[in-house]
């Protein structure tokens, strides 16, 4: 089998649609076997079925609430049983919240952090041992790719919960990188920081303004003059998942059309 991640096994959370789906499809195309997880189990299963129709035995789907420690343990055991190990973890599952700081409820605050931050922490905590065992004494390296956001670097109005959760993912990724290096694990950890991407997370704006106007409003903020596509992020993840990036750890990859340069 050939491809940039040939022989690797990857777990992608939030893989029923959007960035997760695009990433799973690209990693499979480039030679990986992929475990697609999502709280939308039916959606993940449909994507896995589509991947298997082109590449039989490549994909498996798992129902997964990333905020549940028990779910993480069950899913990782399932991935090991299905594929024999794990090389790559892509912590992609996430939710958004745009709301006035003074109006955010504690329930909303906790929910955003539970999905966008706690879910990433739990994934890193529980996947590290399995990845370390899988890559030990093999030529293939391990990689954790955490999907943060440009909102984890640059603050925005009415984005306090999302900003803080995604900013924490940025530094958590660096801490995991140092942990794995100190332990002597052959595992790298990096974060990816997308800007506005054409995925369901933009649905509230689409409902408010209509798709064309919503996308145009966002595109005007970006030097390259457009919002991103899911594959723009998937290719960034592919690089970090592959051993092409074997000397890259604790880094942050901005895929933002130049917005952070301003």
Helix-strand sequence: EHEHEHEHEHEHHHE
CATH topology: Rossmann fold
Please, how many helices? 8
Q: How many β strands by DSSP?
A: 7
Based on CA atoms alone, the radius of gyration comes out at 18 Å
In the CATH hierarchy, the architecture is 3-Layer(aba) Sandwich
The CATH homologous superfamily corresponds to NAD(P)-binding Rossmann-like Domain
Give structural notes.
By secondary structure, the chain is an alpha/beta fold. 46% of the residues are buried. It is built from eight helices and seven strands; from the N terminus they run E-H-E-H-E-H-E-H-E-H-E-H-H-H-E. The protein has helices at residues 18-29, 41-54, 69-83, 106-135, 160-183, 203-209, 211-219, 230-241, and strands at 9-13, 33-38, 59-63, 88-91, 142-147, 187-194, 252-255. It has one domain (9-261): NAD(P)-binding Rossmann-like Domain (Rossmann fold, 3-Layer(aba) Sandwich). The mean pLDDT is 97. The N and C termini lie far apart (43 Å). Helix 1 (18-29) crosses helix 8, helix 3 (69-83) packs parallel to helix 4 (106-135) and helix 6 (203-209) packs across helix 7. Strands 3-2-1-4-5-6-7 form a seven-stranded parallel β-sheet, with helices on both faces.
């Amino acid at each position: 089998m050939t491809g940039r991640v040939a022989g690797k096994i990857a777990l992608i959370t939030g893989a029923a649609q959007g960035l997760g789906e695009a990433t799973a499809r690209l990693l499979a195309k480039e030679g990986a076997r992929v475990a697609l997880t999502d709280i939308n189990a039916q959606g993940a299963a449909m994507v896995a079925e589509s991947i298997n129709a082109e590449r039989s035995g490549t994909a498996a789907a798992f129902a997964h609430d990333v905020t549940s420690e028990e779910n993480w343990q069950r899913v990782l055991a399932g991935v090991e049983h299905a594929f024999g190990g794990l090389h790559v973890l892509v912590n992609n599952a996430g939710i958004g919240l745009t709301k006035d700081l003074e109006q955010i409820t504690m329930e909303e605050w906790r929910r955003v952090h539970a999905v966008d931050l706690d879910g990433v922490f739990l994934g890193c905590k529980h996947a590290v041992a399995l990845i370390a065992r899988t890559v030990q004494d093999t030529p293939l390296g391990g990689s954790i790719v955490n999907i943060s956001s440009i909102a984890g670097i640059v603050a925005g109005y009415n984005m306090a919960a999302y900003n803080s959760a995604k900013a924490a993912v940025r530094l958590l990724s660096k801490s995991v990188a140092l942990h794995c290096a100190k332990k002597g694990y052959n595992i790298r950890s990096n974060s990816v920081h997308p800007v506005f991407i054409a995925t369901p997370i933009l649905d509230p704006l689409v409902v408010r303004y209509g798709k064309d106007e919503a996308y145009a409003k966002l595109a005007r903020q970006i030097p390259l003059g457009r919002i991103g596509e899911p594959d723009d992020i998937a290719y960034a993840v592919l690089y970090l998942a592959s051993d092409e990036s074997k000397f890259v750890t604790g880094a942050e990859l901005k895929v933002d059309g130049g917005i952070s340069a301003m």
